[in-house]
Amino acid sequence: MTEWRSTWVTSSLQTLRARGLFDRYVAALPDAYRDALPLTVAGVWMPIATARAHYQACQALGFSQSEARDLGLAVGERAQGSILRTVVALAKGVGVDGWSVMTHVPRIWERGARGGAVAIYKVGPKEANVEVLGCELFDVPYFRAAFHGVVLGVMRLVTQRAYAHERAGSVSSDFVVRLQWV
């Protein structure tokens, strides 16, 4: 992977600000990123090293896995915005479900990352394995847990309930999760 979409980082920064964690976050940034990273704008490609600096600073804040997942849920909500939520709500009436979202996941990944890949495997009528491969950010524990939250948040837009369980044994650059929904 070579680049990461800044929209995810700016959504994360907004979430940290909203929770009163921004000053601690800035203090945790490496000196080389302390001035520029907090001023990141949405919608541009950033080098993977910059994204890594962001997620490592979040890791340094000492969140539990559950707290990081919850922050990921909040980041996902911010990144998706109210327009997408409205479209999804309208689409629910015409049969959009978890599988409708699953068909778009590879394209969503390509809009958010340059490099890596996503594969979706149907396990049951409302169950899938989602494999994200070749993303070096997954070796940052905060990123793994927050990404888990983002995945749940996306599924919760179109389902009543969604559950995600990371499969044990995933290597550091990969993320494999079993998704189930109702």
CATH topology: H-NOX domain
Strand order of the largest sheet: 4-5-7-6
Query: Largest sheet, if any?
Result: 4 strands, antiparallel
Radius of gyration (CA) equals: 16 Å
Oligomer: single chain
Alpha-carbon distance between the two ends: 33 Å
State the secondary-structure class: alpha+beta
**Order of helices and strands, N to C?**
EHHHEHHHHEEEHEE
The number of helical elements comes to 8
Please tell me the CATH architecture by its name: Alpha-Beta Complex
Tell me, what is the CATH class? Alpha Beta
Record field, number of beta strands = 7
Kindly estimate the percentage of residues that lie in beta strands according to DSSP.
Answer: 15-25%
CATH superfamily: H-NOX domain
Helix content, binned percent? 40-55%
Tell me the number of structural domains.
1
Give unreliable regions as ranges: none
Overall pLDDT: 89
Indicate the topology.
Blueprint: E1 3-5, H1 6-18, H2 22-28, H3 31-34, E2 45-47, H4 48-60, H5 65-92, H6 98-102, H7 105-112, E3 113-114, E4 117-124, E5 127-133, H8 141-156, E6 162-166, E7 175-181
Antiparallel strand pairs: 1-2, 1-3, 4-5, 5-7, 6-7
Write a structural description:
By secondary structure, the chain is an alpha+beta fold. The protein has one domain: H-NOX domain, CATH 3.90.1520. 52% of the residues lie in helices and 19% in strands. The protein contains eight helices and seven strands, in the order E-H-H-H-E-H-H-H-H-E-E-E-H-E-E. The protein has helices spanning 6-18, 22-28, 31-34, 48-60, 65-92, 98-102, 105-112, 141-156; strands at 3-5, 45-47, 113-114, 117-124, 127-133, 162-166, 175-181. Helix 2 crosses helix 4. The longest helix is centred in the middle third of the chain and has 28 residues, at 65-92.
